[in-house]
Design goal:
Elements (H helix, E strand, L loop, with lengths): L2 E2 L7 E12 L2 E12 L3 E5 L6 H9 L6 E6 L2 E3 L3 H5 L2 E4 L11 H11 L7 H7 L15 H12 L6 E5 L7 H17 L2 E6 L2 H7 L2 E6 L2 E6 L1 H8 L3 E8 L2 E8 L5 H9 L4 E7 L3 H9 L5
Parallel strand pairs: 1-11, 4-9, 4-10, 7-8, 8-9
Antiparallel strand pairs: 2-3, 2-5, 5-6, 10-11, 12-13, 12-14
Length: 294
């Protein structure tokens, strides 16, 4: 059964109601509904083939839903596609940069398409850590550098809605961290962000709410912390020395007497480590979907 948290109090920038799409006889998105408020990051969490990318393509107007409605910034998609696209920033998993052009030229070209006046690529390239490669051809960029340039390009028009399809997939930790920081800053600026990912850690650290999607359907939508509290068991894992070995004890926090057990463990001179544990989004997704995110 699908469960949802209340709609955020802020005015939604994205409102999706009952959209469907199939490739031939195979349903890809089946009766999907959700909203994203301005300044909110909604993480679409699911395995490859779950319907995440197809949803993004309907939101960008590349595909038209067979049923249901999409409203973005108070306008209907695809009926008002051009007006909406002027205010969208999009970063696809597939790179579609102009490799023979420099980073500066790529950004300037897209700024011209959006009719952004007096656009200066240098501050944008500095935001994504590419200022030193501004005038290098993109064909010379690494995968991580190209992804950062894709993010910079998505921000050229200062978008009100940011649609990101696996923005850090396959990147090194430094590049992934830089992109996550940029996404959070865009949400803080007031952009509504829809982030599709199969990376549980990314969804957990970035998202205000997450939507579990599997086989084209949304299973639940809620804040990561709410899901972990509702479905996980809080516990403390304690490790102490025992001769040449190590003893490990797991104490549930919600059982009677747990405080005394933890107090005794902390006072043990042979205490090595103590840390709290909770269910991960991966654990909870498996509970809902009966399968992992891989």
């Amino acid at each position: 059964m699908v469960t949802t948290s209340p709609t955020p109090p802020a005015t939604p920038a994205i409102e999706v109601d009952g959209i469907r799409f199939s490739y031939g006889d195979t349903p890809a998105v089946d009766n999907v509904s959700f909203s994203v408020a301005r300044g909110e990051i909604l993480g679409f969490l699911g395995p490859n083939g779950a319907g995440k990318s197809t949803t993004i393509k309907m939101l960008t107007g590349q595909l038209s839903p067979e049923a249901g409605t999409i409203e973005m910034l108070g306008m209907a998609m695809p009926a008002q596609r051009e007006e909406i696209q002027e205010r969208l920033g999009v970063c696809f998993e597939e790179k579609n940069l102009y490799l023979s052009m420099t980073g500066r030229e790529n950004l300037a070209f897209f700024a011209k398409l959006f009719e952004v006046k007096d656009f200066d690529p240098e501050p944008m390239m500095e935001r994504v850590g590419l200022s030193a490669r501004l005038d290098d051809r993109v064909s010379e960029y690494s995968k991580g550098m190209r992804q950062r340039l894709m993010m910079a390009r998505a921000l050229v028009n200062t978008p009100d809605v940011l649609l990101l399809d696996e923005p850090t997939d396959g990147l090194d930790p430094v590049s992934a961290l830089a992109i996550r920081d940029l996404i959070r800053k865009e949400a803080d600026r007031g952009s509504a962000v829809l982030l599709t990912t199969h990376d549980m850690h990314e969804a957990d650290t970035l998202s205000d709410r997450v939507a579990f999607i599997n086989q084209g359907s949304i299973l639940t939508i809620d804040a990561p912390e709410n899901l972990k509290l509702a479905h996980g068991q809080r516990s403390v894992r304690i490790r102490t020395r025992h001769g040449d070995g190590v003893d490990e004890q797991v104490i549930p926090l919600d059982e009677a007497g747990s405080g005394d057990l933890i107090r005794d463990a902390v006072s043990d001179a042979d205490l090595m480590t103590i840390h709290t544990e909770e269910a991960t989004l991966e654990d909870i997704f498996v509970e809902y979907a009966g399968r992992g995110l891989a």
